[in-house]
Write a structure and sequence with these properties.
alpha+beta, HU Protein, Chain A, two-stranded antiparallel ribbon, 3 helices, 29% strand
Length: 93
């Protein structure tokens, strides 16, 4: 599902215009991103949680030349699905 398809589904379900639905979807995404930037954990009951994981610095290799390259530390977003979501995906119905 693309973002445009999600906006369309929200618009149909809520009987709102696509413009209003797009504003809602964008606001949710922006809120998630801002919270992650601030280091907060986001927990959506029944769906899952988002958090940031730290990756330390390491030595990598340039695949073209084979030279050693220092890879700086970085923050990676991580999603952990909730129990209810796992059960829904694995149910037979």
């Amino acid at each position: 599902m693309t973002k445009a398809e999600l906006v369309e589904q929200v618009a149909e379900t809520t009987q709102l215009t696509k413009k209003h639905a797009e504003l809602i979807v964008n606001t949710v995404f922006e809120s998630i991103v801002e919270s992650l930037k601030e280091g907060e954990k986001i927990e959506l009951r029944g769906f899952g949680s988002f958090r940031i994981r730290q990756r330390g610095p390491r030595i990598g290799r340039n695949p073209k030349t084979g030279d050693r390259v220092e890879v700086p530390p970085k923050r990676i977003p991580y999603f952990k699905p909730g129990k209810e979501l796992k059960e829904l995906l694995n149910s037979d119905s």
